[in-house]
Every structure is written in C-alpha cells, then in structure tokens.
Amino acid sequence: MEKCIPVDRLARPDDWIVVRSRQAREIRDEQGMDARPLPFDEEALRARLHGIYTGELQAMEAAGRTLFDFPDAPWEFQLDMARQVWDESRHAEIFQRLVEYMGAKPGEYVETEILWRCTQAEDPAARVAGINRGLEGLACDVFDQLIRIAQRNGDEVIERAVDYVLADEITHVRMGSKWMRKLTEGDPERLERARAFQEMVDEVFNFRGGRRAQEDIAVDDGLILTIAREARLLAGFTEEELQRLVESTRKSSAY
Ligand SMILES: [Fe+2]
Ligand SMILES: [Fe+2]
Predict the structure, then answer these.
(1) Which class would CATH give 7-253?
(2) CA–CA gap between residue 99 and residue 78 (Å, rounded)
(3) Which ligand sits closest to the CA of 137?
(4) Cβ neighbours of residue 213 under 8 Å, at least 6 residues apart?
(5) Residue 56 CA: which ligand is closest?
(6) How sure is the predictor about 18, in pLDDT bands with cuts at 50, 70 and 90?
(7) 141 CA to middle of ligand 1, Å?
(8) Nearest residue to 203 via CA among 239, 254, 237, 240
(9) Greatest C-alpha distance within the chain
(10) Is residue 180 exposed (0-12), middle (13-18) or buried (19+ Cβ within 10 Å)?
(11) 3-state helix, strand, coil in the chain (%, to 5)
(12) Count of alpha carbons within 13 Å of 19, Cβ hemisphere only?
C-alpha cells in the first residue's frame, strides 16, 4: 500500500492552483509585496483566511489518510482520526464561509503544499506527532493571534468562529500527545524519532523567525506570531516541551 501520497494527488477543482510555499514567496517578492504582510490589512486578512481554509482541507485529508494508512493501529486511535476528519471538515466549512464573508471565493488565492509536506511519515506515532502536535500546535498559535486581531478590529464574527475552531484544535493536539506517547510505550527510540519528526515540522514554521516566544518580543501588538502557551498547556504540552519549542524559535530567529 502506498503511504505518503504526493500533494498533486489531492482532489481539487481544475482551476485551483497549488504551489510550493517558496514559490508563493518568490512571486510575492517579484511583485514587490511584503513577504509577511500585516494581518490587520483587509486584503492580507482575506488571503490569510483563505490560507487557513486550504490548511483545514489538508488537515481533513491528512487525518483521513492517517486512518487509511494504518489499519493495524488500535481501534481507539482510528476512532480519534475519524472524529478528526469530521471536525476538520467543519473547520473547512467555517473558514470557507469566513472567506466568503470577507468578499472572496474559494480558489481565488493559491494553495500552498507546505502542510501536506509535513504529513509524510511512515510511522503513526511520528505522523500524529508531526500533524497533531506540530501542525495543529501551530494552528493554536495562528488562531490565538487571529482572535486577537479580530478583537482589535471589533469583528465578532471572525472572533467567535475562530474561537470555536481553536477549542477543537486543542483536543486534536491533545489526541496527538496521547497517541504519540501510547504508541511508543516501552520504546524510547521510537518516541525520540516521533519527537524528531515533530521538531522538524516545528522548525519549518519557525524559519526566518516567523514565530517567537511571547517573552522574546518587546511589544505584543499582534503582528508577530507567538506561541499560544495557554492553549498548548491545555493540549498536553509539558513545560519542558514548551521550552524546547521556545529554544527552537530562538535558534531560527538568529538566521
Ligand atoms: Fe482544523
Ligand atoms: Fe485540527
């Protein structure tokens, strides 16, 4: 059975454009657009919501893929993945509507394949470490920031919609924490490999100082993505794991 299917095998309408995120960055540079636009700008917010919408589609596909790829995993693991597919499909729908609420249509912006690239692990323990803890931990950081932006903009629709989704993401990260530990019980090397895969995912998103620890920024005006400490603690991250993540953002912001 083929695991780790390539991104171009995901089902998308014919007129959708999926690019590598580096390519998207280069195009923005060529057009003289800021590589990291201010999220308070309406157009930047629209583009960001579309990016999250396609991220939710990929999260739905990834959870479905994890369920399909590991038929020998414990039944409770499969049930968790099936529930997650359902949650992510609702998230995709919520963000699709937020995109429309902002006056855009699905497919009007490019989709990047970076999330899907972070799902490519052959071991279910590594898969949930990378997806549920790495990527969905990132989703907690992004949603936490988005809620603060919506509050600042006085936009209750976005604020509440994202808050509902964040509550689900916390349970997904917690599922990842649970299964990463359960599947590797009595096998510290396997646990270390799963953690290493998650750290690789974390570092992809810390690249170029894109995410920082709250205590490392002088003024938190919502412009810099910070680690959502409270949400992550609720989601089963330990203090030690949070500290590792903080160290990793420090390493990458030094580039
Ligand atoms: Fe989601
Ligand atoms: Fe999720």
Answers:
(1) mainly alpha
(2) 31
(3) 2
(4) 226, 227, 245, 246, 249, 250
(5) 1
(6) confident
(7) 12
(8) 254
(9) 53
(10) buried
(11) 70, 5, 30
(12) 14
Q: Which two tokens stand for residue 112?
A: 């990047």
Three-class secondary structure of residue 230 per DSSP = helix
How far apart CA 218 and CA 133 sit, in angstroms, is 27
> Tens digit of pLDDT for each residue in 162-196?
999 999 999 999 999 999 999 999 999 999 999 99
Neighbours of 126 (CB within 10 A): 24
More confident residue, 8 or 134: 134
Q: Given this model, what pLDDT does residue 94 score?
A: 98
pLDDT in tens, 59-102: 999 999 999 999 999 999 999 999 999 999 999 999 999 999 99
Q: What is the DSSP string of 139-157?
A: HHHHHHHHHHHHHHHT-HH
Q: How far is the CA of 59 from the centre of ligand 1 (A)?
A: 6
Count the Cβ atoms, other than its own, within 10 Å of residue 220.
13
52 touches 95 (CB < 8 A): yes
> Residue 186: which region, alpha, beta or left (left: phi > 0; alpha: psi -120 to 50)?
left
Confidence of residue 244 (pLDDT cuts 50, 70, 90): confident
Of 176, 52, 39, the closest CA to residue 119 belongs to 176
Separation of CA 143 and ligand 1 centre (Å): 10
Q: Which ligand is nearest to the CA of 84?
A: 2
Q: Over the stretch 137-167, which tens digit does the pLDDT of each residue have?
A: 999 999 999 999 899 989 999 999 999 999 9
